[in-house]
Amino acid sequence: MRISELSRRSGVSIPTIKYYLRDGLLPAGRPTAANQAEYDEDHVRRLRLIRSLIGVRGLSVSATRDVLAAVDEQQGDVHLLLGLVLGALPVERSGRPPRRDGAAEPAGAGAAAGDAAQDVAALTAEMGWKTSPNPPAAQVVAETLETMRALGVDYDWRSLVPYAELADRAARLDLDQLRDAGDPLQQAERAVLLTVLLEPALLALRRLAQEHHSALRFGNG
């Protein structure tokens, strides 16, 4: 296809496509004349993933380039690919994902040390979840528990088990929706959209449900 068709199919403007080509985010097309080239479905899928990483997930062009370099090396490992595009795994400046043997602890991993970090380890063990060493999400949970305790709220990992069970069901639902996307790049794009775009809606649904059940329990009709 010509670049105009590539723009229409991907939803990315022609000037932006040319910028991505110059900056190395998008591989060059097949030359057909001095200033013309043809593009294929791989370019469409790549552009849609770039658009998701920059426009939806909010990554910079530089960070997107690093993620794409890692994605190019890991297309045979869908699990690792999803971790890279969703930010569950950090990406080194070389474009490679970090080692997964857990031998070296990343900088800042001890920030949420202590009882809260032990609680998160106990929670993931209780749920039987297999995660990478020191995932960013685990640190968020640990820091939240530390803050709650500092404010005098008696909350530990056992209190989070019912919420973890709901999260487990939601995660299964998320991944079920990737089955129709057979290509790894399509799966990666859809995973970004489902995760980033749906999170505010999921929080809003929780608020609506809270209002409903509050009205049932405490309302006056």
From TrEMBL:
SUPFAM superfamilies tied to this protein: Putative DNA-binding domain
Keyword DNA-binding: yes
PANTHER family: HTH-TYPE TRANSCRIPTIONAL REGULATOR ADHR, REDOX-CYCLING DRUG-SENSING TRANSCRIPTIONAL ACTIVATOR SOXR
Bias (Basic and acidic residues) ranges: 93-103
Name of the protein described by the UniProt record: MerR family transcriptional regulator
Keywords: DNA-binding
Highest classification ranks of the organism: Bacteria, Bacillati, Actinomycetota, Actinomycetes, Kitasatosporales
Occurrences of domain HTH merR-type (ranges): 1-70
Location of the region described as Disordered in the Swiss-Prot/TrEMBL record: 93-112
Pfam families (UniProt xref): MerR_1
Domain of life: Bacteria
Gene3D superfamilies: 1.10.1660.10
